[in-house]
Amino acid sequence: MPSESHITTPKAAPKAASTETSSGTSSVTWQSFSGQQPYLPIVESMGAHNATIRADNASEAVWLLEHAAVYTGGTSARDADLLLPDPAIPTHRTGRGGQWTYHGPGQRIAYVMLDLAARGGDIRAYVHALEGWIIDIIAVFGVTGTRRAGLPGIWVQTGNSVSGYDKIAAIGVRVSRWVTWHGIAINLAPDLAAFDAIVPCGVTDAGVTSLHALGHKVTYDQLDDAMRAHFDTHFGAASPLAYQPKPA
Fold first, then answer.
1. SS (H, E, C) 88-137
2. Is 183 left (phi over 0), alpha (psi -120 to 50) or beta?
3. What is the rounded CA–CA span in Å between residue 85 and residue 71?
4. What residues contact 75, with CB distance under 8 A and at least 6 apart?
5. Could you tell me whether strands 151-157 and 179-187 are parallel, antiparallel, or unpaired per DSSP bridges?
6. For position 84, what pLDDT does the model report?
7. Are the CB atoms for 73 and 182 separated by under 8 Å?
8. Is the pTM of this model over 0.90?
């Protein structure tokens, strides 16, 4: 099982964590943050690390964390889809792709910073791999996730919405100089009522669900173990997105 450091950094820039070899040719640093992390400091630190991957050949990274409650709007977010947000919850526009979403306690965030130039340079393939990773993760707990054409993220057929699907995981990515950042959010046990204040991801025919709402009382440790266990399937040496450094 990959090793990982657990770091409490509520307001400061993240510190280095332990490094593991994920693909056999690229070391991916996994860093786990304890406590609820404020959004803007983490995004600032993530952007800084993203830049060092390209400029200084820093290690690729996956950051696992839980955000304090926040609404974030991606590059496609429409003002009309921000309905009645709680004034006590911060709202931020951000540079990732996608529309409005909610982050908060009970939701596992994985910020993924990979050198896409060394992994084939295909953004669509990268998003597809993130989706496949999520599907494998939640399958560990007996949940069948699926893609919906044109709607990034992973959905579960519940019969509780117009489409019959509810969203269990969101994806929002940004690529800077062919290095990825932002990533995925898996609903473990967030306050699902918080999503009522927005049109989540601009989708009106579906709701939002979580592992706990589906009856699966998964812990963060169990979820994190599943995330690490299935990472190499989609980003390791035998995957289509395997790290292939350019010749020196």
1. CCCEEECCCCCCEEEECCCEEEEEEECEHHHHCCCHHHHHHHHHHHHHHH
2. left
3. 8
4. 95, 96, 97, 98
5. unpaired
6. 80
7. no
8. no
DSSP class per residue in 37-93: EPHHHHHHHHHHHHHHHHHH-PPEEEEEEEEPSEEEE-TT--GGGB-S--TTS-EEE
Query: How far is residue 148's CA from residue 229's CA, in Å, rounded to a whole number?
Result: 25
Respond yes or no: is residue 201 known to be catalytic.
yes
Report the C-alpha gap between 52 and 59 in whole angstroms: 9
Q: 177-234 pLDDT, tens per residue?
A: 999 999 999 999 999 999 988 887 777 788 899 999 999 999 999 999 999 999 999 9
Which residues make beta-bridge pairs with 9? Answer: none
Of the residues 135, 170, 201, 206, which is catalytic?
A: 201
Neighbour count for residue 41 (Cβ, 10 Å): 15
Report the distance separating Cα 194 and Cα 104, nearest Å.
Answer: 9
Tokens of 204: 């009106």
For 105-126, the pLDDT digits (tens) are: 999 999 999 999 999 999 999 9
The stretch 141-164 carries a mean pLDDT of 93
Q: Tokens 């510190």 map to which residue?
A: 15
